[in-house]
Amino acid sequence: MGIHGRSNGHTEGAMPRFKTILVTGGAGYIGSHCVVDLLQNGHEVVAIDNFANAVGDDDGSPALRKVEEITGKKVTFYRADLLDKPQINDIFDKHSVECVVHFAALKAVGESMAQPLLYYQNNVLGMLNLLEVMRSHGCFQLVFSSSCTVYGEPERLPITEEHPTGKITNVYGRTKYFIEEMLKDLSVADERWNIISLRYFNPVGAHPSGLIGEDPTKEFTNLMPFMAQVALGKKPVLTVFGNDYNTPDGTGVRDYIHVMDLASGHVAALNLLSANHVGLKVYNLGTGKGVSVKQLVDVFERVTGTRIPLQYEARRLGDITAMWADASLARTELGWTTTRSVEEMCTDFWRWQTMNPDGYVKKNKTSVIVNGKS
Ligand SMILES: NC(=O)c1ccc[n+]([C@@H]2O[C@H](COP(=O)([O-])OP(=O)(O)OC[C@H]3O[C@@H](n4cnc5c(N)ncnc54)[C@H](O)[C@@H]3O)[C@@H](O)[C@H]2O)c1
Questions:
Q1: What does the annotation say about its assembly with partners (predicted)?
Q2: How confident is the model over 154-180, as a mean pLDDT?
């Protein structure tokens, strides 16, 4: 899909660059990994997060302090909520933000079904506030975290960006779909907007340093953190929902992508935006390969030397059988491709988990002895 788009993203030689990038949800899993890549590519980063699903402490974000350690560069961080528009406005007043990479959202499918208003408010209203503040500060460059959930049950595989969207079975996915529709309308109405929506497939893994990884504060449902908890002996079994799908081993098939490959997709998107006016463009970020849950578990066991007992349960309502990307548009237009294997996804995640079995450690300034009590 491209709306008044000039497509060729791959530009040669020196190109104009955005200096200051605002990263929303920067303390989260994908956000923190992406900040590493942005800093290493010469951008300055102002990150915000409300810690709805990330560890935070008196000094800000432990994840982003690790990012500073990895890169040797500074991140400006604000604890801020996108629902608090005046606060977001103040941050834009303080910094000349040239482009926004918008990760901040709630993302748990089950929670979204139980609390739809929370999801519509946080994700859709949060986006609306951000767009209004951006416009009032003359900032029209945006990279948006979308998801392959916007495609619903695939009509054909692999999925290209042309595949119909909108037949979605859960509220979380619908927030992404509604936002994409909103961005379409916006880019048609006002051609100053220059937007890339990236539809992620299934991000897993961690930075190879083992210093940052996935450490949600809400109950997690993503496969790899769960699997690692089982491997560490913190949970007894890995529950797999459905082993009677029409796939080679009966378990669901997904397109797992290393989080650092995903991060580099954002740098590629920024490069395209900084050199071209695209209006609104949408790209799949995936490897183009389907891997079953069972295959992922097998690779994880092999590369980590651990055992993951499985317990099969009935399929979950709304789960799809198989989904993988056709990522050729991102290759030709963004000059981006994945380079990391499923083995690396597992090894890197395991390094993070074993180096940090309890996740990020909080710094608490108040943990001093006061009147004999800590
Ligand atoms: N991880 C996945 O499997 C996946 C797949 C497709 C798309 N996505 C999208 O990618 C983005 C990042 O996902 P992630 O896996 O890093 O999730 P995450 O929960 O680790 O990161 C999101 C961050 O946004 C913050 N946040 C949420 N609402 C906020 C608000 N109102 N104001 C400020 N901060 C807020 C959370 O505290 C969290 O740190 C999300 O938009 C998600 O929907 C994720």
A1: Homodimer.
A2: 96
